[in-house]
C-alpha cells in the first residue's frame, strides 16, 4: 500500500560533531561557564504555522529560567553566523 | 557518522521511594559478575560502598524547556555528566542512573529524547522502580512521587516480599497494576532478582513496546482508590485510519501531554500489513511501522495511557472515531 508520510517517525540524527560544534559556538559567543548546560535539539513541529524543522538551543544557567534560541533550520544547516551573540 | 542503535550506550534509570532497596540493587549490579562495566550516576555518593572513578555524584538540576511547541523538563546535570562520561566511553559498557527517593522520573526520561548529543550517544534502556512490598500502599496514599515513579516504570521490582502475607502481596500487586498495567513486575527479597531481567531490556525500543506483558490490556481494574496517577487502555478490533489517527494522537499529546506520563500503543492500520507502534513520554511522541502482523494474530489496536486525571471518555471517543469505518472526521476535535 502507499503509506502516508509518518509524522511520528523517530528523529534522524544530525552529525554528532555538528551538534557538539554548535554547543562550542554558543559557549564562545555567550562566554558561558562550565556550570552552564547547553542542549541542542532538532525538532519537527507538527503545528500549523511552525517551520517544518527547527533547531532549538537551550541555555540552562543554574537557578535561572532556560534561555531558548530557535533557528528555523536543521542542525546540519546551522552556522556560527546564525547564533545571536550575548 | 551517527551511531547505530546497537552501538549506543544503554542507560538504565533506577528509581524508588526512600528505603525501597535501590542502593541494595545498585551495589549488586556493581559487584556481581555479569560481564558488564557500569558508569554510575548517583545522588548520594556515600551510600555506594565502592570507590570507583566511574561513580559520579550529582545534584538534580531540573530545567523547563518551552519552545512553544513542546514543553518538557530535562535534567541539566545529566546532560553535562553524560557529555563528560562519553569522552571515556571505552572504559564502560552501560550507564546506570540512581535517582533520589523523591525524584520525579520525567525530567530524567525526557533528557534522553531532547538533547541531540545525549540522544545520539546513548539510549534509554529502561526505567526500573524498586518498591517496598510492606510499605508501598501507605506511600502511594501519601506521596505523589511514589505514584509517579511507578507510573514511569518499565520494570517494577516488588521488593521485601518476605515481609508481607500472600493476600497482602496480591493487593499490592493489584494496586501497582492499576497505576501501571504495562510494567513487568518482579518479586524479590533483598532485590535478589536476576540482573538479566533488569538490565539491557530495550524497553524504549519501538520494536519492543508493549511486548513485556502482552495480555495486560485485557484486564479490567477496580477503582476503589482515588489515585493521583491512573491508567486506562483502549482496544478495538476495527481497523484504524492513519489519516485520522496520526493527527488525532498528535493533538492529544499536545493537549494533554503535561499530564500524560506515558503512552504506548500498537495500531492495525487499514490495508497495512505491518503493525504501527507509538509511544510517548509527556509531549515527546514517536511512532513507526514495526513487524508484519502474523497470520494467526488478531489485528487488534491497543493504546494504554498512564497519567494524571486524563479524560478517558473524551480520549476513548476520539480514538473510536479514528476507526476506518467511522464516517466522520470529528476525531480531530477529540
Give the overall shape of chain A, derived from the CA principal axes: elongated
**Major beta sheet summary of chain B:** 7 strands, parallel
Q: Could you tell me the radius of gyration of chain A in angstroms?
A: 15 Å
The amount of helix of chain B comes to 25-40%
Regarding quaternary structure, what we see is: heterodimer
User: Biggest interface in this structure?
Assistant: A-B, 37 and 41 residues
Largest sheet of chain A, in brief, is: 3 strands, antiparallel
Count every beta strand of chain A, where a strand is a DSSP E run of 2 or more residues: 3
The share of residues in extended strands of chain B comes to 25-35%
- Topology pattern of chain A, helix = H, strand = E: HEEE
Describe this structure in words.
Chain A is an alpha+beta fold and 86 residues long. Chain A is built from 1 helix and 3 strands; from the N terminus they run αβββ. Chain A starts with 15 loop residues before the first helix and ends in a 15-residue tail after the last strand. Chain B has 334 residues and is of the alpha/beta class. Helices cover 27% and strands 28% of the residues of chain B. Chain B contains 9 helices and 14 strands. Classes of the chains: A alpha+beta (86), B alpha/beta (334). The interface between A and B is large, with 37 and 41 residues.
Amino acid at each position: 500500500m502507499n503509506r502516508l508520510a509518518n509524522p511520528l517517525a523517530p528523529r534522524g540524527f544530525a552529525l554528532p560533531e555538528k551538534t557538539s560544534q554548535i554547543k562550542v559556538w554558543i559557549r564562545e559567543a555567550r562566554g558561558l561557564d562550565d556550570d552552564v548546560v547547553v542542549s541542542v535539539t532538532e525538532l519537527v513541529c507538527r503545528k500549523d504555522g511552525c517551520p517544518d524543522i527547527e533547531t532549538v538551543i537551550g541555555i540552562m544557567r543554574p537557578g535561572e529560567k532556560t534561555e531558548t534560541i530557535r533557528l528555523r533550520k536543521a542542525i546540519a544547516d546551522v552556522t556560527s553566523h546564525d547564533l545571536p551573540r550575548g | 557518522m551517527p551511531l547505530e542503535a546497537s552501538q549506543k550506550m544503554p542507560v538504565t534509570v533506577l528509581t524508588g521511594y526512600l528505603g525501597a532497596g535501590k542502593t541494595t540493587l545498585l551495589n549488586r549490579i556493581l559487584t556481581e559478575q555479569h560481564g558488564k562495566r557500569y558508569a554510575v550516576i548517583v545522588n548520594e555518593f556515600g551510600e555506594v560502598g565502592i570507590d570507583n572513578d566511574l561513580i559520579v555524584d550529582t545534584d538534580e538540576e531540573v530545567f523547563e524547556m518551552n519552545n512553544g511547541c513542546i514543553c518538557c523538563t530535562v535534567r541539566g546535570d545529566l546532560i553535562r555528566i553524560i557529555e563528560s562520561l562519553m569522552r571515556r566511553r571505552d572504559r564502560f559498557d552501560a550507564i546506570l542512573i540512581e535517582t533520589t527517593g523523591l525524584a520525579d522520573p520525567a525530567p530524567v526520561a525526557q533528557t534522553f529524547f531532547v538533547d541531540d548529543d545525549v540522544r545520539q550517544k546513548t539510549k534509554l534502556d529502561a526505567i526500573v522502580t524498586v518498591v517496598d512490598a510492606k510499605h508501598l500502599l501507605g506511600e502511594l496514599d501519601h506521596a505523589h512521587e511514589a505514584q509517579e515513579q511507578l507510573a514511569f516504570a518499565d520494570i517494577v521490582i516488588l521488593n521485601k516480599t518476605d515481609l508481607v502475607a500472600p493476600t497482602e502481596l496480591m493487593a499490592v500487586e493489584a494496586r501497582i497494576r492499576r497505576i501501571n498495567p504495562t510494567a513487568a513486575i518482579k518479586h524479590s527479597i533483598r532485590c535478589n532478582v536476576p540482573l538479566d531481567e533488569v538490565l539491557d531490556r530495550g524497553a524504549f525500543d519501538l520494536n519492543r513496546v508493549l511486548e513485556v506483558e502482552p495480555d495486560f490490556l485485557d484486564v479490567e481494574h477496580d477503582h476503589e482508590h482515588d489515585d493521583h496517577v491512573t491508567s486506562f487502555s483502549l482496544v478495538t478490533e476495527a481497523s484504524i485510519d492513519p489519516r485520522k489517527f496520526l493527527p488525532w494522537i498528535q493533538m492529544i499529546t499536545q493537549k494533554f501531554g503535561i499530564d500524560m506520563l506515558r503512552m504506548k500503543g500498537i495500531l492495525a492500520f487499514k490495508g497495512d500489513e505491518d503493525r504501527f507502534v507509538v509511544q510517548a513520554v509527556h509531549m515527546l511522541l514517536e511512532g513507526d511501522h514495526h513487524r508484519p502482523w502474523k497470520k494467526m494474530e488478531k489485528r487488534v489496536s491497543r493504546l494504554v495511557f498512564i497519567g494524571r486525571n486524563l479524560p478517558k471518555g473524551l480520549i476513548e471517543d476520539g480514538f473510536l472515531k479514528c476507526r476506518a469505518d467511522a464516517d466522520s472526521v470529528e476525531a480531530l476535535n477529540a
